[in-house]
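Task card 7
Instruction: Convert sequence to structure tokens.
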Amino acid sequence: MENNIVKPRGGFFKQSFVVLLLIVSVYLDQGMMGLAPFINFEAILLVFGGTFLLTWTAFPLKEIFCPAGPHALRHAAGCALGMGVLSTLLGLMPTLWAEGNMVIFTKRVAAALAGLFYGFLLSKVILTQLAARLEP
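Output:
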């Protein structure tokens, strides 16, 4: 008996639209300088790269790139949240330890929070939605 379940299409477009809405919302509120706290390459590398590596430790590459079910994506979503928290802590700890003026302190705290933002973005906007599409 052949399985005739039709999977919905257009997920990447819809997810990209949500990210675009976030960007436009910040831009309309604060202008181009409002996007500056989100441009934290260390957080992007830690969250996205760390999520991939942690998922790779639990699942083979084939299952990550061509998942047969939602298990690998749900695992990756959990890893993304964890890496977001870890990235934020790694940014906050030296910031809170260092001495400096208040302007530099607040900018460093804002940059550290970008890790949490990317962790939630990757987990809740991207990976969890992809996993939901693979539910039986």
